[in-house]
Amino acid sequence: MFEVLKEIMIDIVGFEDDEITIDGHLYNDLDLDSLDMSQILLGLENHYKISIENDEIKNIETINELINIVNKKV
Amino acid sequence: MKKRVVITGLGVVSSIGKNVEEYFNNIKNNIHGISRISSYDTSDEKVVLASEIKDFNFKEHFSRKEINRLDRFSAFGIIAAREAYIDSKLIEIDPYRLGISIGTGLGGVTSLLNEKKKFDENGMNTVSPLLMVKSLSNILAGNLAIEFNAKNSSNTIITACASGTNAIGEAYLKLQNGLCDVMIAGGSEACIDPTIMAGFTNMNAVSRSKDVNKASIPFDKNRDGFILGEGAGILILETLEHAINRNAKIYAEITGYGYSNDSYHLTAPHESGSGAKHAIKMALNDSEISPKDVSYINAHGTSTPKNDEVESLAIKEVFNNKVAISSTKSFIGHLQGAAGAVEAITCVKSIENNYIHENLNFISSDLDYGLNYLSKNMNIKLNYVLSNSFGFGGHNACLIIKAIS
């Protein structure tokens, strides 16, 4: 799961490989904004054929937390 | 009392130069940027030539994440604006006194077309969430406002081929009236795409020539349409007092702006040239000069049969003399919404260098107005120059640029 997420963040959003760690903070470490998050969520939805609602991710702050949400759906 | 408006910074991205120095050196060396289209396959196309910016390394200017968010037109505009801003040596300004005025014809249309293709082929879930931030026509102005912390007005002017000139003119009006101190003004365009080209081709607007030296030939008897170009031109405009107070280098002054609409036809200019004439006269009146004071006209000169004829008629009726006329489109094709901006920069560099370029590859004209279409480059001390732009939709816009005194 982490590898898939990492691939989306690098290939689609444009992050660099060394910026992304499993316990990385989405906002403090990666300076993520709403456009980044939209691309990541769409990438995950398309890859896993799932749907992620805004309410489900509004309180998450780390990559690990995002992975946990996706894990529950897959 | 209206404030005087001067030009203190220049930036260009074009097919013959990725900065102002390279661009104008190539102009002086009679090097044009028209070549076979490389960005898509033209083997079955009626139109095979364009003025493309090739081998542009966006990674030199932007991070991967930034590149993802930028349409080509935004990227060109930002790069040109950075050059102009650095050139102006502007360091400190109240953000609420710094504004943006940008012209574009089609904005991020190629990003829109790319996403439409994805939608048609694979459905809505494949359309990028970045579609809007890449394709909105105002998004270059938005990008520049963030980049330069500009909090005054940040407007986008869309008047087709007159956009760049109108954008500079509207910035000039704001400065003249004291609504801000500095404006980042100009235009950007990047729409060399098979669908866009098909539209221009099927309306018989673009040249079908296969000879790069016989394609964009404004005022020549063999002209058969424009050559689509891409690029950006950005100028830093400021009030004279602001420029003097910070001891800025002043390139030239904008003394006149004229505009009109033909209110006649969506694409064809009015046969009398009345709209063009009105805009030219308005710019002359704004400058408080007479036609004889203008020593060079940087013409709209698209290389279409109709534009060049009607523009010539308008010039003949206003000037009735041997004022030197040339079109920068003979070098870089037609940059649409960026054309007027790059051409204004060409005028500024012409004044600075006491040099006006010829109509490259011009041989002879069928237009019997007795006008002086330059067939040779000229060394000449310039005082007032006129830059014309006319666009689909009937838009006409003219600027008078003056050597600084």
What is this structure's SSE topology?
The complex is a heterodimer of chains A (74) and B (405).
Chain A: H1 2-13, H2 34-48, H3 54-57, H4 63-73
Helix pairs in contact in A: 1-2
Chain B: E1 5-13, H1 20-28, E2 35-36, E3 49-50, H2 64-69, H3 72-88, E4 98-103, H4 109-122, H5 131-135, H6 139-147, E5 154-157, H7 163-176, E6 182-189, H8 194-202, E7 231-239, H9 240-245, E8 252-261, H10 274-287, E9 294-298, H11 305-319, E10 324-326, H12 329-332, H13 339-353, E11 355-356, E12 372-373, E13 378-379, E14 384-391, E15 395-403
Parallel strand pairs in B: 4-5, 4-6, 9-10, 9-14, 10-12
Antiparallel strand pairs in B: 1-7, 1-8, 2-3, 6-7, 8-15, 11-13, 14-15
Can you tell me about this structure?
- With 74 residues, chain A is an all-alpha fold.
- Chain A is built from 4 helices and no strands.
- Chain A has helices at 2-13, 34-48, 54-57, 63-73.
- Helix content of chain B is 34%, strand content 20%.
- Chain B contains 13 helices and 15 strands.
- In chain B, a hairpin with a 3-residue loop joins strand 14 and strand 15 (395-403).
- The longest helix of chain B has 17 residues, at 72-88.
- Classes of the chains: A mainly alpha (74), B alpha/beta (405).
